[in-house]
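Worked example 2:
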Amino acid sequence: MPAKGKYLLNDQELKHEALYRKFSCISQYQPLVLLLGLSMLSCGVLIILFFALHLWSIHKESVKQWSIHKESVKQWSIHKERVKQWSIHKESVKQWSIHKERVKQWSIHKESVKQWSIHKESVKQWSIHKESVKQWSIHKESVKQWSIHKESVKQWSIHKESVKQRSIHKESVKQRSIHKESVKQRSIHKERVKQRSIHKESVKQRSIHKESVKQWSIHKESVKQWSIHKESVKQWSIHKESVKQWSIHKESVKQWSIHKESVKQRSIHKESVKQRSIHKESVKQRSIHKESVKQRSIHKESVKQRSIHKERVKQRSIHKERVKQRSIHKESVKQRSIHKESVKQRSIHKARAIYRHGIYREIERNTKQLTGFLNKGKGTVIG
C-alpha cells in the first residue's frame, strides 16, 4: 500500500508539471500579442487622423472659396450700379460741355471786372503816392532837425570835457595848497626836533655835575620822557593818516557830485536815443506798409490763381474717379473668371469627398473586424 500510494502521487506531479509548462508558454507569448494589437490600433487611428485632417484643410479651403464667391456676387451688384452711374455720367458730360461754354463767358466777364478793379487800385495808389510825397517832405525837415540836434550834442560833449578839465584844475590847485601847508608843518617839526636835541644836551650837562643818585633818577625820568616821545610820534603819524583820509574823502565827495551830473546827462542821452529809435521804427513801418500794399496786390492775384487751380483739381479728381471705375470693372471681370474656376473646383471637391467617404466606410469595417478578431484571440488565451 505505501508503495502504491507513492506511485500515484508521482503521476499527479507529472500532470501538474505538464500543465504548468503549457500555460507558462502561453503566458510568455501574451505580451507580444498585446503589443501587436496595440500597434495595429495605433496605425488605424493614425490613418483615420491623416484623412480627417486632410479633409478638414480641404473644407477650410472650400469655405474660403465660398466667401470669395460671396464677395464676387457683391462686386457684381456694385458693378451693375456703376454701369447705371456711367450712363448718368454721360449725361453729366453733355451738361459739362454746356457749362464750359458758360464758364468761358463768365471768365471774360471776370477779366473785365479785374481790369476795372486794377484801374481803381491805380487811382488809390496815386492818392497814396501824393500822401507819401507829403510825408517825405516832412521827413526831410525831421532830418534837418536831426542834424541840428547832432551838432548840439557835439557842442554839449565839448562843454562836458571843458567842465571836467576845470574841475581837474581846481583839484590840482587845492592839492598844491595842501602840499604847501604840509611843507610848512614839516619845517616846524624839524625846528622842534632841533630844540629838543639842544634841550637834551643841556640836561646831560647839568646831570654830569650832580651826584650819581641824581643821575639815576634823571635817567629814569628821561626813559619815561622817551616813551612819551614815542607815543607823540605815533600820534603824529596817525594825525597824518587822518589828514590824508580827509583829503581822499573830499575828492570822493567831488567825484560823487560829478557822477550825479553824468547820470543826469546819461538819462537825457537815453531819452534822445529812444526818440531816435522811435523815429527809425516809424520809417520802418512806412516801408513795411509799402511792402504790405504790394503783398496785398500779389495776394489778390494768388487768390485768382488758386480758384483756377481748384477747378483744375476738380477736373482731375473726376478723371481719376473714371479711371478707378474702369479698373474696378476690369477687376470684376477677373473675379467672374475666378468664380467660374471656383465652381469647377467645388464640383471636383464634391466628387473627391464622395470617393473618400466610401474609403472611410471600408476602413471602419476593417478596423471593426480587426478588433473583433483580437478580442476573440484574447478570450481563447484567457480560457
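Residues 4-9 have pLDDT under 50 and may be disordered. The longest helix spans residues 2-209.
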